[in-house]
Amino acid sequence: MCFAARHGMVGVKMTYRLAPANPWPAGARDVAAAASWVRQNIDLFGGSPDEIVAVGYSVGAFHVASFLAHPEFQARDSDVAGVVLVSGLYRLSADADAAEKSYFGTDASKYDERSAFPGILNIDTPLLLAWSATDPPHLIAQGEKLNEQLCNSPAHCPHLTVLRARDSLASVFGVDTSSGSLAGPTLELVREIEARGLP
């Protein structure tokens, strides 16, 4: 929110329903509902419905990726112009932990269809993919695999950033726009989106 305000943008914070009371695909549906609301109302706050960038962090990164990958969960008028995914889990494995199973369920045979793959490989939305050098190895591997598959897909290679640390979403969007922060790469993504709308 502060990052957006400092750079002349409008920041909108959303949350999502939690598992186990709200299992898959509740998160993707919540992202779709939020994106739809923002598109319909952002002009009231001085923003543009055609320049919305969705940012997902940790579990939120999976929900945003799942929203993109599964058009059947998207709401009317829920398109976004760009996406930032930070330290997410994009494909669940059979050795999922209890927290992951509380959202995805215990039937491992359904994990592939509930992942962001292969749908996310077909999107044309500009994407910034990030993870931290201090993330657990399985999250780093998830980011590296998504980057590799996007670069080998009909879509496109994402913008890519490896963060120095990952204490919180606020910390990775800190005032410092030098390397190791998400601030600079996110501003580049926003400028790319803005340039698309120029005559």
Question: Which parts are unreliable, with pLDDT below 50 for 5 consecutive residues or more?
Answer: none
How do the strands of the widest beta sheet line up side by side? 1-2-3-4
Main pleated sheet: 4 strands, parallel
Helical percentage: 25-40%
Write the layout of secondary structure elements.
Layout: H1 2-6, H2 26-41, E1 53-57, H3 59-69, E2 82-86, H4 98-104, E3 127-132, H5 137-151, E4 159-163, H6 169-172, H7 183-196
Parallel strand pairs: 1-2, 2-3, 3-4
Description:
By secondary structure, the protein is an alpha/beta fold. The protein is 36% helix and 11% strand. The protein has a 4-stranded parallel sheet, sandwiched between helices. Strand 2, helix 4 (98-104) and strand 3 (127-132) form a beta-alpha-beta unit. It is globular, with a radius of gyration of 16 Å.
Keywords:
7 helices, 4 strands, 199 residues, alpha/beta, four-stranded parallel beta sheet, 36% helix
Brief overview, please?
By secondary structure, the protein is an alpha/beta fold. It contains seven helices and four strands.
